Amino acid sequence: MKYKILLIEHDGSSLRVLKRVIGKANLDVVTATTLTEAKIIFEKSTPESFLCAVVDYTLPDAPHGEAIDFAIASFVPVIVITSQTDSDIRERILSKAVVDYIPKSNSQIYEYLSRLLTRLEKNKQVGVIVIGGNTKSRTDIYALLNRHNFIGYQAANSDIAMALIQKHAHIKLIIIDQKIPDSNGVDLVARVRKVYSKERLSIIGTSERGDASILANFIKSGANDYLRRPYCHEEFFCRILQNVEYVEQIEVIKQTANTDYLTTLPNRRHFFSQVSDVMDREPKSMTLGLIDLDHFKNINDTHGHDFGDIVLKETAKMMKKHFAKDVISRFGGEEFCVFMHNIEPQKANAKLDGFRQAFSDKVFKRRNKLIQCTLSIGITHQRSEKIEHLLTVADEYLYKAKANGRNCLMDELLE
To answer: Do 45 and 101 belong to one domain?
Structure first.
């Protein structure tokens, strides 16, 4: 679903700039220059179709922020833009349930707006738990998180919190108050860190202003950050976003490190890690298939490396579909690998041969030419504690498949 942004701005030059900024965030823009126009737009739309409203504080028919109140009452998150920068206006805006306010002071604010809009869309997939404290403090934080589209959860005690973390993989941040009925914040941080690293889950500790040692104890026990209450709206969200983005950036780094850039399959190193985890669980049976495209050098030489890349990408797509429940990888060049466990050797062979046949039937189009390719597979069903041994045996059978005329598979059963 592509979300829309309702932009309510009366100044023509600002309107043009803001439309470009919102477009940069890959969002559709619906514009209004007055509060009256905005009301008409809402009558013809559903609030759920809008990611948020970007509202100028001063409009011809709403000079004192009335458009902000209207958008909030319509259950749409609101970002306020204003050319008025005095402290009274700022306090008046932040006293309302807005996402943020942005003064029209310099060009950098538009870059900030673009990042904020992108973040609001991402937040719809991010879970945050508020743990401990009294009911009012939890509810207040929960309401702030809702403004930024986070999937919010509340937990009165540590056991409820741990159950929520285990249940919901999309939770990336927990906010822990020092006061918890069945424990305390510092001890809960230490408990969480026994299971979840900082790279998997961010933690922010909170407490009333007081003993500075609590801050140090939170950090020493594994918290990523700390907030003293009371805190201002802007500081709260800066810290929330900083800690959520830290986890997301680590996920991107890991994904990049574990993925083959061309085919997006797991690379050899990640394949080894995945297979080792499975083998540690002592599966009843295991099959490893080493797949190599036949005469791939001829494909590159005859049709060009661009076409060769297309063949490799299509091979990967077919493998993802055919071996959806198995561990797969691109080893490099034209070589791929499949690991299956708890499947009888004959059924594993049939599955691998089905893929071989489907690939040989695949037709690639290249400049009005129809091209077909084949592949050979070396297989082993031996039990071993080391993946390296399985690869050595499978490679021997792959060589035999090539020597046997290619476009076939070989293993202990077929030799």
So the answer is: yes
pLDDT of 130 over the 90 cut:
yes
Which ranges in 281-382 belong to alpha helices (H)? 296-303, 305-322, 345-361
The CATH number given to whatever domain includes residue 374 is 3.30.70.270
Closest to 34 in 3D by CA, of 79, 2, 1, 66: 66
- Select which of 334, 335, 344, 396 is catalytic: 334
Contacts of residue 356, Cβ cutoff 8 Å, sequence gap at least 6: 374, 375, 377, 407, 408, 409
Q: For the segment 202-251, what is each residue's pLDDT rounded down to a tens digit?
A: 999 998 866 678 888 999 999 999 998 888 888 899 899 999 999 999 99
Domain of 168, CATH number, reads: 3.40.50.2300
* Model pTM above 0.85: no
Chosen domain end from 77, 102, 121? 121
Cβ of 216: how many Cβ atoms within 10 Å? 12
Query: Is position 231 within any domain?
Result: yes
Token pair of 242 as six digits: 């900083």
Residue 382 to residue 287: CA distance in whole angstroms: 7
Decide if 48 is catalytic: no
Residues 133 and 242 in one domain: yes
What does the mean pLDDT of the chain come to? 91
Interval 43-94: pLDDT, tens = 888 878 899 999 999 999 999 999 999 999 988 999 999 888 788 888 889 8
Q: Pairing relation of β-strands 225-229 and 369-371?
A: unpaired
Q: Supply the pLDDT for residue 49.
A: 85
Domain boundary among 258, 277, 292: 258
Q: Is 109 helix (H, G, I), strand (E, B) or coil?
A: helix
pLDDT tier at 23 (50, 70, 90 boundaries)? confident
229 in any annotated domain: yes
154 and 109 within one domain: no
Residue 396 token pair:
């021997």
Structural domain harbouring 234? 126-258
**Residue 263 forms part of a structural domain:** no
**Residue partners of 328: CB distance under 8 A and separation at least 6:** 265, 266, 271, 319, 320, 336, 337, 338, 339
